Amino acid sequence: MQVLGKWVTAALAAVLATSLGAQPLPPQHLNPEGGSGYTEKSLVRAEHFMVVTANPLATQAGYQMLEKGGSAMDAAIAAQLVLNLTEPQSSGIGGGGFAVYYRQADGSLTTYDGRETAPGAARADRFLRDGRPLPFGELVNSGISVGVPGLVRMMELAHRHEGKLPWAELFEPAIQIAENGFAVSHRLHTMLARSRSLARQPAAAAYYLDPNGEPWPVGHILKNPEFAEVLREIAGHGADAFYTGEIARDIVAAVNNHSRPGDLALADLSSYEAKERRAVCAGYREYEVCGMPPPSSGVVGLLQMLGILEQFPMSSYGPTSAQAVHYFSEAGRLAFADRDYYLADPDFVDVPVEALLDRDYLKARAGLINAETSMGVAPPGDPVSRLPELGRDNALELPSTTHIVAADREGNVLSMTTSVESAFGSKIFVRGFLLNNQLTDFSLLPADQEGRPVANRVEPDKRPRSTMAPVIVLKDEKPFLAVGSPGGSAIMNYVAKALVGVIDWGLDIQQAIALPNYGSRNRETELERGTELEQLVQPLRRMGHQVSVHEFPSGLHGIVIDDGRLWAGADPRREGVAMGR
Questions:
Q1: Is residue 18 within 8 Å of residue 24, measured between CB atoms?
Q2: Do the Cβ atoms of 76 and 101 come closer than 8 Å?
Q3: Residues in CB range of 3: below 8 A, 6 or more apart
Q4: Nearest CA to 528 among 513, 496, 550, 545?
Q5: Segment (H or E) for 289
Q6: What confidence score (pLDDT) does residue 34 get?
Q7: With DSSP H G I counted as helix, E B as strand and the rest as coil, what are the percentages for the chain, rounded to 5?
Q8: Using one digit for the tens of pLDDT, what is the confidence trace for 51-105?
Q9: Which of 210, 296, 338, 403 has the most neighbouring CB atoms within 10 Å?
Q10: Mean pLDDT, residues 301-316
């Protein structure tokens, strides 16, 4: 199957899925982040391999690699490179990410850390003026928000260990699409229309907007030959082509010549290292849930939520009942309370992961939950008697991220989340790609009002905390489920919902993903607008919940491996597609 140089329409996606032995897909309603639209999607079945991404062209690129005999990692890399073009608001080579990988050959599970780092010149008062944080909008769309991109190094490291196809071959679909062009989707058009800051960045505006400063219309063929040349350089010369030489010089110049300049140096790029880290795992019911360790807080927080929920009979509550929402939200409050104090880059801070996931500690935390009344704002726990030494983090995480899951014919399984932080990142456009604004994931204040240092404060070469939560669930030491989501700090709630949906409520992966979103980030209890959850506002308020009803769009993608078959789901809130054979 050849990658097409134009938009895969909903009808064509359905034909492709059917021709490959998968269940037909219904028409795709392409929803933007924050959109309230919702279109049913079908569970997709395959026998040999599967890939799910946030865009049909990216899914097709991943499928092409799997069909050639490539690994799940090969598929993810090819898909990610295409997403740089078709979903630039969410991820790309100017950003970073995390990957979790199960190796069938030896039954091991590992993770890859491609999180951005702060420049070597970064200081603790980076985001302050006269001791107070600058307006967040000024920080996001600036050079000081740009971290050293980690995605290209991470993909190269992961491919060295997990890849089967030649590195250069993985770049071919994205190069072809960049040269021949692709049709602007409804979702991309809508996101361009919402991002007024793009118009103030000349290079980005010249590519994403028409001569009148309006976003390119749906169906407009968008070509990116400059990005194709960048991909050719990386394909031919490896990640060094990105982190040294002309591309690196252009990145540094764009950041440091911005109207609010950053302090990125060539040495920051050339010295960047992706890292392989040991997965963090904990039991839930009869399963073992494994995923990304710090500097992501997402999986540690997720495992805390599950460890707390394990103390309650979740299967006896309806998925959208007041009781389910109550316990789920209370567990989230407790997990987020700990996250705000303890989670940060483990190369700079002693993160007490084992203590935070201790079963007795989580059982004690669960004991704080009242069956009838919300606790409001949960207090942090103190599993290692360090709380008096730490200040609370005030970082914001905005929901522009993407998630890829893949399983190959040999039984290797991948779950990978990547991001440029807020929509279109910093809006700084270099050589056909956008740079991240991930440094705003650091705490804006280095210490609290009492002068206690914040674990997630800015420091040179440090990785900002994330909530990305790529997960692989094991059953009898074999992969059972791979899942993850975009969504900023809400990722923990989205992924937890999907896991509880499958494990406790017996839903298939598509049904679990499609469940209305709810939960708490230790603030109000959040309910997804336009869903049956709106009927719970008054019952929850009578239980003491402060309730917020708003658009709450996840972008969950998941694969279940059961009885030798693969079952995949894609979030109906976005344009994702699953394909397999």
A1: yes
A2: no
A3: 57, 60, 61, 64, 82, 172, 173, 176, 177
A4: 550
A5: strand 287-291
A6: 45
A7: 35, 20, 45
A8: 999 999 999 999 999 999 999 999 999 999 999 999 999 999 999 999 999 999 9
A9: 403
A10: 98
CATH class of 34-272+395-580: alpha beta
Q: For the residues of 412-464, what is the DSSP string, one character each?
A: -EEEEEEEEESTTTT--EETTEEPP-GGGGS-SSSB-TT-PBBTT---TTPPP
Host H or E run for residue 331? helix 322-342
CB atoms within 10 A of CB 304: 28
Cβ neighbours of residue 112 closer than 8 Å, sequence gap 6 or more: 98, 99, 101, 154, 157, 158, 274, 275, 276, 277
Q: Where are the beta strands (DSSP E) in 296-412?
A: 400-407
Q: Active site residue: 53, 59, 86, 401, which one? A: 401
The sheet carrying 518-520 orders its strands as: 518-520, 525-528, 547-550
End-to-end CA distance of the chain: 12
pLDDT at 1: 29
For the CA atoms of 169, 155, 488, 370, the dihedral, rounded to the nearest 10 degrees, stands at: 120
Whether 9 has a pLDDT exceeding 60, the answer reads no
pTM over 0.85: yes
List of residues 6+ apart from 455 with CB closer than 8 A: 341, 342, 343, 344, 349, 351, 390, 393
Here the tokens at position 220 are 């407009």
The rounded distance, in Å, linking the Cα atoms of 419 and 159 is 19
Query: What are the tens digits of pLDDT across the range 430-471?
Result: 999 999 999 999 999 999 888 899 999 999 999 999 999 999
DSSP letter assigned to residue 260: S
Q: Tell the residue number behind the tokens 């990957």, with chain if given.
A: 99
Q: Is 244 a catalytic residue?
A: no
pLDDT for 397-437, tens place per residue? 556 799 999 999 999 999 999 999 999 999 999 999 999 99
Per-domain boundaries in the chain: 34-272+395-580
